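SEQUENCE-TO-STRUCTURE ENTRY
===========================
What this section holds: a protein sequence and its matching fold, both as plain text.
Tokens: labelled as protein backbone structure tokens, with as many entries as the chain has residues.
Question of interest: how does this chain fold, as expressed in backbone structure tokens?
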Amino acid sequence: MPKIIPFKALRPIAELAEKVCANNDAGSPEAIREVMRQNPLSYLHVVKPHLLNNEKPAQSLHKGRVFLDKLIADGVMQRDIEPCYYIYRNIKGSKAYTGIIAAASVDDYMDNKICKHENTLSEKQAKLLEHIKHFGNIGMPVLITYPDTKVIGNIIRDITQHKPEYNFISNEQVKHNLWLVKDAEHIGQIEDAFTSMDKIYIADGHHRSAGAAAYAQYKRTENPNFDGSEAYNFFPVCLLPYSSVHIFECHRMVKDKAVNDPRFIQQIKQYFEVHNVGHLPFQPLYKAEFGLYIKGQAHQLSLKEEYKQTGILESLDVSVVEEFILKRILNITDSKIDERISFLDGSKGIGTLQHLVDDGFADLAITLFPASVEEVIAVADNNLIMPPKATWIEPKIPTGMVVYEM
């Protein structure tokens, strides 16, 4: 029975929302620096000041804090007077994602009422903890998915018929809308609807969740008489129904001269049926299809019957690649830390993958079909953990749009 509550957000005034809200994954460091140079109000100046100053992130935290304080002092960002739910809509091309931004309970996260499917890196979690300690807030909600429900769907349809508080198009040609839910009846209905669910699932933002939980534990140690209602016992989330979440595949790229040895394809043929499919990368269109691309040579793969597994985790396409190509053939035993491997999400396009290999950034690209929402949920329900970078999930929510103060 997850506890999902409204909160008083710190957020930009409507006429400046387009300037302040920022894409936290805006590309290379140089691309992000260029956005920051061109836009003096971007929230990137809060979360990534080190990029302009050529410093380590920890060295620039105070500069981000000064920038945020100035945004508040200048009236660019203001705090809502009363707790609200926030309905957020992201429209990319003809695809629309609509969710509810709210605060979720840290206790529910720790008790697995908010389920996980990824491991977190302790180093990254520690950095996020220091960031939250310094700022006392989180500016980008964790993406959560939940079972479709008519009650919430009807409320969203009712409210989104009215003029939004925010209505702007970002540099990435994504349209962003935000509505405030202040009505007591709607607030009660939304809260009750989530309370009636057994569990909900993290889609994207495992490190932010873990950082928020670590911060709550830190604050509880400082305040042993806490009663659970304190702001640090919650963290910001954007909740989307199962039917609205879009999962992209995450392709693997390998830099290893062993790939160019003629024996490499022979090793692949030990485990897979292999078909040459020309000179362009193969994009799998069905589960259990895989592609290899080696500078002008493309192959379609399917795992041989004798190696197929039926377990929830073992049968995932990404697990097949991890086991039979990365581990057994290339001796990449830990994708999280091996410097030979990198990742490219499917939203970037197969052509980008081809250029990266042809230009020498990688020797090999391994293409996959995306995991399904049902597979992600099955992994989480069974307390299992997917391999690293198993999914790329959209929508991506701007940072600085709805800031939760802890």
